[in-house]
Structures are given as C-alpha cells and as structure tokens.
Amino acid sequence: MQSTQSELVSEVLQTEAFQELSPQIKVAIFLGGLAFLSSALVTMTAFTRIVIVLSFVRRALSTQEIPPTQVIIGLSLFLTLFVMAPTFQAIEQQAIMPYLHEEISSSEAIQNGSQVLKSFMITQTRKQDIQLLLDLAELDSIPTPESISMHILVPAFVISELKTSFIMGFCIYLPFVLIDLVISVILMALGMMMMPPVVISTPCKLLLFILVDGWSLIIRALSLSFG
Asked: Which stretch is the leader sequence (predicted)?
C-alpha cells in the first residue's frame, strides 16, 4: 500500500499545473499537506483512543515519565496502523488501485476512499454525538449514514473517541486507586503517617501489573474495542 500511495503522490507532483508553481508555493503546499496528514491521523483514525488509554495506564502506575512519551506515541502509532489495516486495504482496493489503473477518475477515487473511511468512523461513533452536531448545525436527521458530511462526522467521531477512552481509562485507573487506598490505610494503622503512600504503592502497582501481564491485556482490550 505504501508503494501505491507514493506512486499516487509522485503522479500528482509531476502534473503540469504543479510544475508551473513557484518553489515557495510548492513548499507551502507540501508543509500544508504534512499538517493535514497529522491532523487526519489524530482525528480520523484509532490513534486518539489508543494514545489516551496508554497515557492513563502510565499515570495510573505513578511511574512519572516511564514509559517515555516517545514510546507511548510510537506504540500508539503502530497499533493504529494495525487496527486500521483492514480500512487502509479497502481504500487501496476500492480507490487507489483503480485510480492508478485509470479505471476511475480522481474525484471517484476520493469519494470511494472517503466512503470506506466513513464506514469505519460511523461504526465507532455514538448516535447521540452525531445528533449533537446535527442539532448544532441546525440540520435535519441524515437519512443514510453514507450521506453524513465529513464536517459533521469528524467532530462527532472525536467526541465519541474521547468519551470511550475516558471510560476505559477510568476502568484501568480504579484498581490502582484501590491499591493506593489500601496502602494509605495500612500506613495510618502502623502510625507511619509521615511516609508518602506512593513510596509503597508504586512497587505494589508495578508488581500487580507485571503479574497480570498488563500490557498484553491493555493491547488486547484496545484492539478488541474497535471490533
């Protein structure tokens, strides 16, 4: 898929209209495209839910910056590619390859690809979030999911992903809060009120997380949550 995408980009860059542009405008278009790609990665894929849940795990373990932020983002990125692989393959089969073989026009390729992406986003978006954006835009109910505009679907999808990730984060946070509570009660019962509970609770959290193979459970739960 990466090769076909690179071929599509190179074909666009070799068009006569693009070649006639000044170097400054070419650089501006290139940088704008990169900014759009990063925004699309965050707002139109599984990245948001994954990175927030993994951040909740790190905060619940009270390990400060361990794992480092670069590790969290890197794992979130590749797990996003894993989760989105069926969607990307469908976009390649229905939009990219037919366009490269000159079977469909560029507008049809964009429409086919957006419909595949819409299907993924709609399955992960709550109906009340879509209805909220429709009410704010003063629009009537959409008769079919395929007719939902991207300017309605994208913010609804992001809101739904934020809610889902916070629910998962709460479920992850709760057992670690109980460990903190138990350690605090034990220290108070022993008269060790001056000792910070986090000094004792952090090793206990890490031991529990290791014993239950926490990372595998988190990755499995995240992957299955998109099913």
From this structure: none
In the chain, the number of structural domains is 1
Eight-class DSSP state of 62: T
Closest of 46, 62, 87, 41 to residue 219, by C-alpha: 46
Check if the beta carbon of residue 193 is closer than 8 Å to that of residue 187. Answer: yes
Domain that holds residue 83: 44-59+71-225
Q: At what angle do helices 69-91 and 47-60 cross, to 10 degrees?
A: 160
The band of 41, judged by pLDDT with boundaries at 50, 70 and 90, is confident
* 202 located within any domain: yes
User: What's the predicted TM-score (pTM) here?
Assistant: 0.75
Q: CA-to-CA distance for 45 and 2, rounded, in angstroms?
A: 17
Residue 13 CA, chain-centre distance (Å), reads 29
What distance in Å separates the CA atoms of residue 8 and residue 117, rounded to the nearest whole number? 18
Q: Is residue 30 in some structural domain? A: no
196 lies in some domain: yes
In a domain, 49, yes or no: yes
Evaluate if residue 161 carries a pLDDT over 80. Answer: yes
Using one digit for the tens of pLDDT, what is the confidence trace for 99-150? 777 777 777 777 877 888 888 888 888 888 888 888 887 777 666 666 778 7
Residue type, 133: L
Q: Which amino acid, residue 194? A: M
